[in-house]
Design goal:
The complex is a heterodimer of chains A (346) and B (222). With 346 residues, chain A is α+β, with helices and mostly antiparallel strands. Chain A is 23% helix and 35% strand. Chain B is globular and about 65 Å long. Chain B has eleven helices and no strands. The longest helix of chain B is centred in the C-terminal third of the chain and has 34 residues, at 188-221. Helix content of chain B is 80%, strand content 0%. The A-B interface holds A 42, 45-47, 72-76, 78-80, 82, 84, 86, 88-90, 99-100, 102-103, 130, 132, 146-147, 150 and B 113, 115-116, 118-126, 129, 133-134, 137-138, 140, 220, 222.
């Protein structure tokens, strides 16, 4: 455990109350905009001051309201990649990166570090360019180089890809994954994009209304979100109230179906979630006759909206994503493998 | 022709715009850090000379630094007398030109992207480095514009100047007071001469501003 964060901060009616820890890998803070993710980063960086709590990085206390410790941002050795990259417009690439080595007095060392980081971020030849002469991807690399050259103990990325178009984004996410692997220390990635979080993060903490809902390994979070909010935030389209009827069996009154699960059910089950991708016309598990009501066409897949035969009139239709080459065939029936039935509690 | 008014006007304008340059930036930085209510109050006080008639400002100056007033008497102890002296003109022009510098500088500082300062902090840059090497260059255009405006305003100052230092040929005469005086005594030719000089200076100032702007633009595009 190399980063420990537990603090509270009131911002008008909004109250930020976060508690999480991060190991030496990538932790994603996933949440909608306005949920307090960026403010959390600012508090860790020392730009904003929490009302109370504690922030410890690699055994060094950055902030502790009880011991009245509040290190200035300059002393925290925390790298912060801003959404806008915050490159200094009046400086060229070289000068920008050298800002990250400001505390280093050995000129030879500075030059060597500069050459090394330029090579690592593939920015050789751009030393004399001003930020506005670079593409979005290059600007991001300069901002990263400027941070990494000072070898921070923690790297924080605030929506790093939101300023880029979608094609470039996917490409840069792959590059970023390699770069983060070689960084080797804690990384916090703030994002509202679950695909991005899934691609880049080992662990994900879900942030909602200024609080951490849950923190789990990425794959575990998506395969067993456990709560209704977590299921929604990981993109589950079909969520409905359900009752536990057996150790591996539940009943969904609004859909009029009994479903078997792979996960053993606990008491206190309140709902069930089924991801739109996981309906299957071939499996014999949880198979029920359905009626299609609408089709939403997307570039590479179709979204079918359907209702179970015995479904309650007032409940919304279900969503089923299918690749374009796979159309449902008569008799219309939808099945779900038991491991894809997500039991939701609380 | 006695060229004293030209020389006097230029030195008064130059000195007061330099003074106002630093005071204005200082005030702008200081005020932009205040909370909302204090900001409103201080802002009104500092901007007042811009909206008051210059003669009213001159009246207030006379009331504060006049020869028989407490402050005037105190200053006299140190041999400083603002009334009827050329450096009284610097005081008058500074007070009048100050709001222009202050307001333009404040506008520039307030439109500064604070993320740049945050980024500097997390990179370990000191507060003064961030101010002089990041904030000031980013606000350069606005600050420069404020300086030129303040200079132009100081050069054309009349109301507060005539109240505080009057018109004494060869001692306190500036271009604007000279034009007024010559016109009043019916010396049309003399007045016209100084009007022409004033036009010339104004044209040079405006050309300088335009050139500075173009140069700035070029550095941005390059």
């Amino acid at each position: 455990m190399s980063l420990f964060v537990d603090f509270r901060k009131k911002l008008g009616a909004f109250c930020l109350d976060v508690c999480f820890d991060a190991a030496d890998n990538v932790l994603g803070l996933l949440g909608a905009s306005g949920s307090g993710k960026s403010m959390t980063l600012k508090c860790i960086a020392g730009i904003e001051k929490p009302d109370e709590g504690k922030i410890v990085l690699d055994g060094v206390t950055l902030f502790d309201s009880e011991k009245r410790i509040n290190l200035p941002p300059q002393k925290r050795k925390v790298g912060y990649l801003f959404q806008s990259y915050a490159l200094f417009p009046n400086m060229n690439v070289r000068q920008n990166i050298l800002c990250g080595l400001h505390g280093e007095s050995d000129r030879g060392f500075r030059e060597r570090a500069l050459v090394e980081i330029l090579e690592m971020t593939q920015l050789q030849g751009f030393e004399k360019h001003r930020p506005h002469e670079l593409s979005g991807g290059q600007q991001q690399r300069v901002a990263l180089a400027r941070i990494l050259v000072g070898s921070p103990n923690l790297l924080m990325l605030d929506e790093p890809f939101s300023a880029l178009d979608s094609q470039l984004r996917a490409h840069l996410q792959v590059e970023m994954r390699e770069l983060l692997k070689s960084f080797g220390k804690s990384v916090l990635l703030v994002t509202h994009d679950r695909t991005e979080a899934y691609r880049l993060c080992h662990q994900i903490a879900l942030v909602d209304g200024g609080k951490i809902l849950t923190q789990k390994d990425t794959k575990a979070l998506f395969s067993d979100p456990e709560s209704r909010e977590a299921a929604l935030m990981t993109g589950c389209k079909n969520i409905m109230a359900a009752e536990k009827t057996g150790a591996y069996e539940l009943f969904v009154p609004a859909w009029g179906v009994h479903l078997t699960t792979a996960l053993p059910l606990r008491d206190g089950l309140t709902a069930v979630g089924i991801r739109a991708h996981y309906f299957n016309a071939r499996t014999n598990h949880n198979r029920y006759p359905v009626r299609f009501v609408d089709l939403i066409e997307e570039p590479f897949e179709n979204i079918f909206q359907f209702r179970y035969e015995k479904q309650d009139e007032n409940s919304p239709s279900l969503w089923w994503h299918l690749p374009k080459d796979r159309m449902p065939r008569e008799p219309y029936e939808a099945g779900i493998a038991p491991q894809n039935v997500l039991p939701l509690y609380g | 022709m006695d060229m004293f008014p030209l020389w006097n006007s230029l030195r008064v304008a130059a000195m007061s715009s330099v003074i106002v340059f630093f005071l204005g930036i200082f005030a702008a930085v200081y005020v932009s850090k205040l909370n909302r209510i204090a900001k409103g109050v201080v802002d009104v006080l500092l901007t007042l000379p811009l909206v008051l008639p210059p003669t009213v400002v001159g009246y207030f100056l006379l009331v504060t630094v006049g020869a028989r007033r407490p402050l005037g008497l105190l200053l006299a102890e140190f041999g400083i007398q603002f009334v009827m002296t050329w450096y009284g003109g610097v005081l008058a022009a500074s007070v009048i030109a100050f709001p222009l510098m202050y307001r333009t500088a404040r506008g520039a500082f307030e439109s500064f992207d604070e993320t740049l300062a945050y980024a500097g902090q997390t990179l370990g840059l000191s507060g003064s480095y961030i101010f002089w090497r990041i904030r000031m260059p980013a606000c350069r255009q606005g600050i420069l514009a404020g300086f030129v405006l303040a200079f132009a305003r100081a050069l054309g100052e009349f109301g507060a100047t005539i109240m505080l230092i009057g018109y004494t040929p060869g001692r306190t005469a500036t271009i604007s007071t000279t034009v007024f005086h010559l016109w009043r005594i019916g010396d049309d030719h003399g007045a016209f001469f100084w009007v022409t000089i004033n036009l010339g200076i104004s044209a040079v100032v405006l050309l300088t501003v335009n050139m500075l702007e173009r140069k700035n633009k070029r550095t941005v595009i390059r």
